[in-house]
């Protein structure tokens, strides 16, 4: 997709006052389907950004209001934060919360994010993906589409698999598939009020509910099917995740199952992976918990980003080596000893006696 910047983030005035020490800019781009999409950016006002963070919002959500606190917190911590409203979400064009193709969401985000990375001023900056809920699925798929462009991901209560206790029957899926070709935009998919399920504190929940840019209806048929198929695709390929990531999940979440996050953590092949589970916290970790708990969550995120923004590998494209956990050091040490034993056995078979290893590692001398 070629991104046409109709009114780019650097060219527009702010639509809302930013927090102290933060610059906020917004505008629109036009995607390859001719649709205008809203984009925005928060960045530190008085310093060069440490790195770039690209936000992927959740189902029915948007960036400029709902994700504002996220953007400002990360900008105050020294990051340039870029967001885009998906087709049919927030201030972007399209039928409200209608997802005719999840691939479109992924392609739109990928194209816009890469266009920001490729700007001259950003060439040497590292880039991280940030996804909440359905945005976690978008972030995972963006990383799969362009794996060398990212240093890591922050995944907050991500949608990446269907919980067994919520998996619809084959009959339901077959019916949904048939209806999606006949009445794709109809809002008839049953379900509980997601706001009541996702957001814990009533006063913050009602403030979120009052945001007119958010979606408040039942899921559309095609949207529900696309989300289901995307979750199934991710579930089958969790072992292909190799990027560094931080996974955060409230243990009392009933929207996306924390057990699914554990499955992602256990299955992913990333050397550098961290997981934070928060007892008693719900789905809206960054929006509707106590101020103290939200501060704790963001401190965990910022600490993780800071560690990977100042680590040594070379390019900002994500091709450098990943930081390694202590548990991986043990595995590497075991592999190294096994290799030495195999080398010795090979030399015995070749020469009839155990040969000497030039430059071989001595016990306790291995360095990583």
Structure description:
This protein has 368 residues and is α/β, with parallel strands linked by helices. It folds into 2 domains: 4-309, Alpha/Beta hydrolase fold, catalytic domain (Rossmann fold); 336-368, no CATH class. The chain is 36% helix and 15% strand. It has helices at 68-76, 102-117, 134-145, 170-182, 194-198, 202-209, 221-236, 258-267, 291-309, 326-351, and strands spanning 4-7, 22-30, 36-44, 52-56, 80-84, 127-132, 152-156, 245-250, 273-278. It has a 9-stranded mixed beta sheet with strand order 1-2-3-5-4-6-7-8-9, with helices on both faces. Strand 2 and strand 3 form a beta hairpin. Helix 3 packs across helix 7 (221-236). The model is unreliable at 7-15 and 312-368 (pLDDT under 50).
Q: What's the arrangement of strands in the largest beta sheet?
A: 1-2-3-5-4-6-7-8-9
The overall number of domains is 2
Mean pLDDT: 84
CATH homologous superfamily name of the largest domain? Alpha/Beta hydrolase fold, catalytic domain
Q: Tell me about the biggest sheet? A: 9 strands, mixed
Low-confidence stretches: 7-15, 312-368
Report the principal-axis shape.
globular
Question: CATH first level of the largest domain: which class?
Answer: Alpha Beta
Distance between the termini: 41 Å
Backbone structural class: alpha/beta
Order of helices and strands: EEEEHEHEHEHHHHEHEHH
Question: What's the alpha carbon Rg, rounded to whole Å?
Answer: 23 Å
- The beta-strand count equals 9
Reported by name, the CATH topology of the largest domain is Rossmann fold
- The quaternary state of the protein chains shown equals single chain
Query: Given the structure, what is the number of helices?
Result: 10
- Quote the beta fraction: 5-15%
């Amino acid at each position: 997709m070629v991104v046409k910047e109709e009114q780019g983030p650097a060219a527009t005035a702010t639509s809302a006052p930013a927090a102290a020490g933060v610059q906020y800019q917004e505008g629109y781009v036009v995607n390859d389907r001719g649709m205008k999409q809203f984009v925005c950016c928060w960045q530190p006002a008085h310093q060069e950004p440490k790195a770039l963070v690209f936000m992927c919002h959740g189902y029915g959500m948007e960036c400029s209001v709902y994700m504002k606190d996220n953007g400002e917190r990360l900008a105050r911590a020294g990051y340039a934060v870029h967001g885009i409203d998906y087709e049919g979400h927030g201030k972007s064009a399209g039928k409200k919360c209608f997802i005719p193709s999840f691939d479109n969401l992924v392609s739109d985000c990928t194209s816009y994010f890469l266009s920001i990375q490729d700007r001259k001023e950003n060439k040497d900056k590292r880039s991280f993906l940030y996804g909440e809920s359905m945005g976690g699925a978008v972030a995972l798929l963006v990383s799969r589409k362009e794996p060398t462009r990212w240093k890591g991901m922050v995944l907050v209560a991500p949608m990446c698999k269907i919980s067994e206790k919520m998996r619809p029957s084959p009959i339901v899926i077959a019916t949904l598939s048939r209806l999606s070709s006949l009445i794709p935009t109809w809002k008839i998919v049953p379900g509980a009020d997601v706001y009541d399920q996702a957001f814990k504190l009533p006063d913050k929940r009602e403030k979120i509910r009052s945001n007119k840019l958010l979606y408040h209806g039942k899921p559309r048929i095609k949207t529900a099917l696309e989300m289901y198929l995307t979750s199934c695709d991710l579930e089958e390929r969790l072992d292909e995740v190799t990027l560094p990531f931080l996974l955060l999940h409230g243990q009392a979440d009933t929207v996306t199952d924390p057990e699914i996050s554990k499955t992602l953590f256990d299955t992913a092949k990333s050397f550098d992976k961290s997981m934070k589970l928060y007892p008693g916290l719900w789905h809206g970790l960054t929006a509707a918990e106590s101020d103290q708990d939200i501060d704790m969550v963001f401190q965990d995120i910022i600490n993780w980003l800071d560690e990977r923004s100042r680590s040594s590998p070379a390019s900002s494209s994500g091709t450098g080596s990943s930081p390694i956990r202590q548990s991986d050091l043990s595995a590497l040490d075991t592999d190294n000893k096994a290799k030495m034993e195999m080398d010795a056995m090979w030399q015995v078979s070749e020469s009839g006696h155990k040969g000497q290893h030039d430059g071989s590692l001595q016990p306790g001398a291995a360095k990583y």
